[in-house]
Amino acid sequence: xxxxxxxxxxxxxxxxxxxxxxxxxxxxxxxxxxxxxxxxxxxxxxxxxxxxxxxxxxxxxxxxxxxxxxxxxxxxxxxxxxxxxxxxxxxxxxxxxxxxxxxxxxxxxxxxxxxxxxxxxxxxxxxxxxxxxxxxxxxxxxxxxxxxxxxxxxxxxxxxxxxxxxxxxxxxxxxxxxxxxxxxxxxxxxxxxxxxxxxxx
Amino acid sequence: xxxxxxxxxxxxxxxxxxxxxxxxxxxxxxxxxxxxxxxxxxxxxxxxxxxxxxxxxxxxxxxxxxxxxxxxxxxxxxxxxxxxxxxxxxxxxxxxxxxxxxxxxxxxxxxxxxxxxxxxxxxxxxxxxxxxxxxxxxxxxxxxxxxxxxxxxxxxxxxxxxxxxxxxxxxxxxxxxxxxxxxxxxxxxxxxxxxxxxxxxxxxxxxxxxxxxxxxxxxxxxxxxxxxxxxxxxxxxxxxxxxxxxxxxxxxxxxxxxxxxxxxxxxxxxxxxxxxxxxxxxxxxxxxxxxxxxxxxxxxxxxxxx
Lengths: 201, 306
Fold this sequence. Notes:
The complex is a heterodimer.
Chain A: H1 29-47, E1 49-53, H2 54-74, H3 79-88, H4 94-106, E2 114-119, E3 130-135, H5 154-200
Antiparallel strand pairs in A: 1-3, 2-3
Helix pairs in contact in A: 1-2, 2-3, 2-4
Chain B: H1 6-44, H2 47-62, H3 64-67, H4 82-98, E1 109-115, E2 123-134, E3 141-148, E4 151-158, E5 164-171, H5 241-250, H6 259-265, H7 269-296
Antiparallel strand pairs in B: 1-2, 1-5, 2-3, 3-4
Helix pairs in contact in B: 4-7
């Protein structure tokens, strides 16, 4: 039973974080694991889109997100953040990119800064699951299909027409129901008036 | 847990409301006016200023984490349960209406009065230095250490234990380390405190002082390998060179860069603000009643004994 560590304040990450960290198989232990992930994070910041094995991508994503969120939170004048950025970014010219390009880009984001997409497996071939890890807002064309402009495909046209017909039918039914109810109501009113007239007489 | 205390609790609550009502209504009115003024002023100021004021108000809530660390849940995901945490928090507040649990840190000197089931009708009072705070929610604990008749004594108290009668802070201060287990291997003078110590009052509005005392340890054998723990509050250990070489080998300098490890050890700020803004009003109310009770306590002049 632990108490939460209150010495450091961190911003919440905007995606589902894994419950525990992966222990990758490597001979160098935890230090080598971080060295290994550093290369991935640096490559991600450099190229903005990389393809790699899924577990490594998933692990590197968390670290890249934390790095960016800390950079946004504390800025480039905070010594600890600068130290951390210096550690995580192997190619030092990219530190400028982190603080001058990525921080302004993601400052007002309410969602995750990176996107992790599973790559479909090629059959027959390498069975290891692959993934594409990318920074959002990168200049490359989107990997995900753009569904906003596919209304012209014949299936969608037919479905739209079918929907329209169904809806019209429903409206007609509702209108008929209302008409029937109104007629009934007016009949009742007339009969009520007659009764009143009779009683007054 | 609190069933036996319940009638008293109700009475206390009613009284508390009566006491507060007048004071609070004025306070809420004034705060409303201030808030309106603030909003008006903010409309004229630029966006950055607005952001800063928001941040400062947020920080005040988040600063509760140092005073009430046990209100934050255990960060381990397998132990998280939002409903249980919420219920625990309400139980903790309910207990805090019964007993005044003061602000204290590791390194503060406390006196705890508790009842013992083996000595019914009598109370124990234990004075000692807090060497550790652990656990969260209703299971929060702290360890007090003192040397009594040349024998080191440590008592682990649960913070929300219903058998506790009183928790007094005799000296409010912090030490250089988060845990003071090394006092077990230190000379006894460093963990000896007078059981009849008078509480030392800090001037109002001052920050909690940090005691820069460096403790001298007894020669080996020790309970732990203190040279490997990067302790700040310990004098030079005076060990042969090979111990320091080994400690250097076992250092993990990369751990401070493991961003996710840090993240998984804490509760993120957004969640902390949510938790503390939920309990803030209750805690504030308790603080107000405590101050009122303090003011009401009449000074009784000691009668002259012949």
